[in-house]
Amino acid sequence: DDDTFSNVFCENSKKLINVHLFALAAKYYSLSNLGVCTPLEDVLEALRGDNQGTTGIKTDEFMNNKKSHEVQVMSELIDSIANYCGIKQVIDIGSGKGYLSSFLSMQYNLKVYGIDSSNTNTNGAHERNRKLKKHWRAYQSRGRANLKSQRLEKANDRPVESEIKCKAISEKPLNNDSSLQSQDQVTIQDLVPSCGFTEVATSETSKQTEVDLVTLTQSDESRLSEEVLAILNVLPADAVEVSSSSQCSCGELCEEERAQRKMASLKAKASKSSESNLYFPLTSCITAETELSDIITDLEDCMMVGLHTCGDLAANTLRIFTAKPEIKAVCSVGCCYHLLSEQFENQEDCPEEVWGFPMCQYLKDKGWCCGRNARMSACLALERVAVGQMLPTESLFYRAVLQVILEEIYGVTKSDRHVGKTFSKSSSFIDYVRKSLKKLELDDSKLPDSCIMDYHEKYKHRMNELEAFNMLKVVLAPCIEVLILLDRLCYLKEQDNIAWSGLVKLFDPVKSPRCYAVIALKKQSCF
């Protein structure tokens, strides 16, 4: 009912008169309250059917907490979509340093092309991926060890009579006809290590395994071979080296063991070679008109993804998805709403221009405009403020007073240059103003320190007012984000080739405030 919130603003002055009602209205029109999102659990269940998800390596081994959370959740969803669509190629738009791309390729064996406009990011992704592979094999070995634990535990839990028999064997002298000569006698318990062994003990385990193999009689070899090989398969292929110990006089078993290990080593090298081709970081600026086939020579049926694609890149990702038949699905999480281009913001008549907002025909027909201030507000994190992570009031105050100085002293009301993160690098307000003026390429010599401090003193009593104003912006932030996200969803709903599209809350908004994904799948006839 529209009348419920009719008393939020004064009818004549249009000023806010009921803050409590304003907050209730903002909550009512937030995405979490409108009921338009599809739960992530429902999406995964529909995609997988009876199949269970893959339990893999935890990403917090090599990412910070925020990035780990994002990559873990999103990669699982992407893998489920790829399996559902029967595709193995993924294009990661705005891939940055390749956190998502490398994890998708290594954990889920997907062929990933990571495209970023920054050559610095692409080079960094190459280097990070190279280092990650070294550690990844250790994580994989650890995972294989866990999968083998039951078999090892079973070997350790032999019946007592087996132990007695082993003891008798160990006490019995070796047959003179045996081709294996050794003075050491061991039991099976010495051969099979504890199921809880770690990679630290790998070298000791391999050495002990070799000693055990050459001291057992021929009749025991066949009985133990399956268990011995199971242990060797648990270890990384290059962790077990062929010993040249004098204890082994090149017997048949040693030769067989060497051959098996050599084959395992060759397979491991082949595997490493193929793994190195699963992730390709590329540098290119993506627009709505981009031809992916010009960038990716072996483009095939694929899906397009983007984790926090900045500004217009999120909108262009959806446009490319709808236009290219080879792209069967999309999963896009946008960010940096303040960098969106708006068709009706400057009232310029550019019908051929492709804009970041609005996308859907409904808002185009309405001539809808948010404006930069509103889009800046949409980037704020209500959930973080709600749990006590307060806004940086002092830095906002510095920036507000700086703008007054720019207008009154320099006559500057608009600039293409940005101050950036000057506050964190400044020791005082004076230092902040001077560094900011240099960034803006303005002469600070005509502005004495006393004048700068006069401005600071003039407005410092209004800091509480500024804080209250920014809190109202935070409360309103989810409503503005709703408008931008629903615009993208409506754009997909307007397309004839889309089988399903929806908004899905992927992340914990305290860890990752831009937590909503726009997801869509093409119709089967488009496959």
Which terms summarize this structure?
527 residues; alpha/beta; 7-stranded mixed sheet; 9% strand
Number of strands: 7
The average pLDDT score comes to 77
Strand order of the largest sheet: 3-2-1-4-5-7-6
String of helices and strands: HHHHEHEHHHHHHHEHEHEHHHHHHHEE
For the biggest sheet, the summary is:
7 strands, mixed
* CA(first)-CA(last) distance: 44 Å
Count of runs of 4 or more consecutive helical residues: 21
Could you name the ranges where pLDDT drops below 50 across 5 or more consecutive residues? 158-253, 266-277
| Share of helix, binned | 40-55%
Helix- and strand-based class? Answer: alpha/beta
**Per the principal axes of the C-alpha atoms, what is the gross shape?**
globular
Query: Compute the gyration radius: what is it?
Result: 32 Å
What fraction of the residues are assigned to beta strands by DSSP?
A: 5-15%
GO molecular function: methyltransferase activity
Protein name: Methyltransferase-like protein 25
Keywords: Methyltransferase, Transferase
Domain Methyltransferase: 66-343
What does this structure look like?
By secondary structure, the protein is α/β, with parallel strands linked by helices. It has 21 helices and seven strands. The protein has a seven-stranded mixed β-sheet with strand order 3-2-1-4-5-7-6, sandwiched between helices. α16 (372-378) packs across α21 and α18 packs across α20 (449-459). The chain is globular, with a radius of gyration of 32 Å.
